[in-house]
Amino acid sequence: MQVIVSFKESGVRSVLDPRTSLVAILVISMVMMCGGLSGVDYYLRIICWMIPFAFLLAMKNYKKAITYFCLYVFATVIEGAVLRITSGGVNLFFVIIAGMISRFLAPMIMGYCVMQSTTVSEFVTAMERMHVPQTITIPLAVMFRFFPTISEETRAVSEAMRMRQIAGKKQSIIKKMEYELVPVMMATVRIADELSQASLTKGLGGAIKRTHICEVGFRVRDYMLIALLVIVLLLFVVY
Question: How far is the C-alpha of 153 from the C-alpha of 196, rounded, in Å?
């Protein structure tokens, strides 16, 4: 039996404060999706895609970190050199490939890191300290558990298909949807209801202020990253 140990299960405090992680996601998304391919923007984008890489290393997820680094080096080289010496259909092909990687991968990986390293209790505590309304906090708290649970459900469906010797066979699109997509969609509805009920059972949405035992607060690494993000954002806006 394979045992997966994560920050959630081991009780280890997350790498960053949830508020710092949210700021990082917003700044990285803005710079990576709206930044240019030359001048100051080019270097700011390099800084932004290095932040999720450092996050993966801090989580000791070395395999994903190496894959992520190689993909971004590939995209950066293409945007910095290859696009300037190609034209026509070849140039368009490289623009699409490099653009998809460089503009969307960093925000996605940063979101993945936050999901993996932050518990729901830490997230809710951070939101309450920022006085965020519960109408926003509760859906986000449900979302924190929704995507990992759907991932586990998808793996369970794949394992069930292997046990029934269905996986690996050549199937039509209709059969593939029947065997894979339909069970996952049915599980999605059930999981969403269960997570919503669990959140309300734990006191989210109640009139009485909840207490927390998890430790949430800014540390030196949070202040350093926030300072870096503020500098990046200022340079991005000014230049």
Answer: 17
The two three-digit tokens of residue 164, written as one number: 């029934």
How many Å apart are CA 29 and CA 31, to the nearest integer?
6
- For the CA atoms of 190, 193, 199, 205, the dihedral, rounded to the nearest 10 degrees, stands at 170
What are the pLDDT digits (tens) for 79-107?
A: 777 666 767 777 778 778 888 888 899 99
Place of tokens 């390099």: 46
DSSP state at residue 5: -
Inter-residue contact 17 to 218 (CB < 8 Å): yes
Give the DSSP letter string of 66-126. Answer: HHHHHHHHHHHHIIIIIHHH--HHHHHHHHHHHHHHHHHHHHHHHHHHHHHH--HHHHHHH
- Give the C-alpha separation, 116 to 68, whole Å: 16
Residue 109 · residue 68 · CB < 8 Å: yes
Query: What are 201's two structure tokens?
Result: 């059972």
Dihedrals phi, psi of 133, to nearest 5 degrees = -60, 150
Q: Which residue do the tokens 């006085």 mark?
A: 131
202, containing H or E segment: none
Give 154-206 pLDDT, tens digit per residue: 888 878 777 777 665 566 667 767 777 778 888 777 777 777 777 677 666 66
Vertex 35, ends 30 and 41: CA angle to 5°? 120
